[in-house]
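Sorry, can you check?
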Amino acid sequence: MHPLIEKQTLSEQVRSYVLSLISQSNLNPGDEIPSEKEIIERLGVSRGVVREAFQSLSILGILDISSGKKPKIQKINSNPLETIFNHAIVTQQVNYQQILGLRRAIEVDSAVLAAMHGNKNDYIKLRKIADKMRKSLLSSNDWDLFIESDIDFHLTLAEMSQNPLYALMLKALRGALGGSISAGLLNQNNHDEHKKIIDIHFDILESIEKQDFVATGLKMDTHFKLTMDSF
């Protein structure tokens, strides 16, 4: 028996073996790992055990197990984390104040990095999103479109930061983001308060366009402080 095949359930042991194999072989996204048949021959376990291990690694976003092909290493994606965050919200294990606290910790630095690394195309994209936010909230009162645009604004900043983990976290929080933004609008449900929301986003945008990362960080922190104070 292979030395790793001990203590855990067989499928957990196979999963641990595959993770060790990925690490020790310096595999990258898109690289293939041994097939079911090869793992069976190496470890002396059943096909069902290997399939269960592969399936669990697929759910975790580690393996792509498309039918008829060798398993491949997946690029990191937000799906597993998104499931956890949505479950936490639905089962009331966390609240929107706590979601906002997490966002604040991530997004202040994300905005600072966006101001440092952004380019002309980024600014154009961000301004189009901000214009859509303003129109949807102040003119057409389309909350759904505003929420979608607000999420896009913050996700674009995360992508501009050049730190893939920031974008990963915000994508995972997408469902919770929608809920927290909607709750914030309900707590600030008048034209003057809505205008303040739009104004702070344009203030952040203008600081980013000037590459003033200090002002950008301060304005993003102010944005979250005002939102959290409204709850």
